[in-house]
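Protein entry
_____________
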Amino acid sequence: MENKSQIIDHIKEESARFQALTYEVSKVIVGQKDIIEFIIMAILSDGHILMEGVPGVAKTTMIKAMSKAVGLDFSRIQFTPDLLPADLIGTLIYNQKTQDFETKKGPIFSNLVLADEINRAPAKVQSALLEAMQEHQVTIGSKTYKLDEPFFVFATQNPIEQEGTYRLPEAQLDRFMFKLVVGYLDQEKEKEILKRKLNISDISQVLNKENIFTAQKLVKEIYVDDKIIDYISDIVFATRNPEKFNLKGMKSLIQYGVSPRATLALFSASKAHAFLQKRHFVIPDDIKSVAKAILRHRILLSYEAEAENISTDTIIAQILDKVPTP
């Protein structure tokens, strides 16, 4: 077992590898440094991501580039209204020669699964993902198959098109560690896209599975003080009982606060954020950096909040402002 100084040195060494990953992906992605960092944090925390953005903001390209740079098996599933669960996880096929059923595995048997436009498929297909995301296994017929580790689901959805889409159920949303909002680039960066020749073939593999497993173990070793644990707990409980934290008027805006999964996600993601900063301990700024991406899809707004056009990001900002920082 490594001692404390060895762990600190190891964290600095491995963190540098993951910073090289940001540089590599940036070869084909202009801007979006924050989004790339969140994708890396999800990999370090063994979490799934939901990316929301209008078409053409490089959501799919970013995920493809990342999978190539970390050397993971990649499969892309285009979600459509006529998709069936079997198209995702696989099915049993009768073999006339052997007179027996054979398992034909689906595209979910991969390290990194891109669920493109996830809200275009009906609930029965979305629910087929639930077991895979939570248990890292799928059931075909009467047999259960373990998925290869590491296993990540990175899903995309388009916020502007509502026709022919199915809203993700709360149980499905809760399984995504982060919800990332991918916006437009500024004018200078968009001009840079025109000047640079961006090609995924330019991406080199800079990490492998072993590097990911090593880093994931190191992230678990990062120290979290009791005061930080109290701070995480206060943020979570402020979404459930806002009046206890002097957040007057917020009770009528929140229909349901966040689940215990959000508490675990804040704990894991703040460790991953500290790791990327080459730190062996978590500080309040780590939590503030990841809070919006973790909480924005888990807070269920009331009709009153929707009528007043108040977003979950606004509510989270108020909570972070009011909850005392240790």
User: Anything to note?
Assistant: The chain is about 45% helix and 15% strand. The first strand starts at residue 49 and ends at 52. The mean pLDDT is 86. The chain has two domains: 4-212, 222-322.
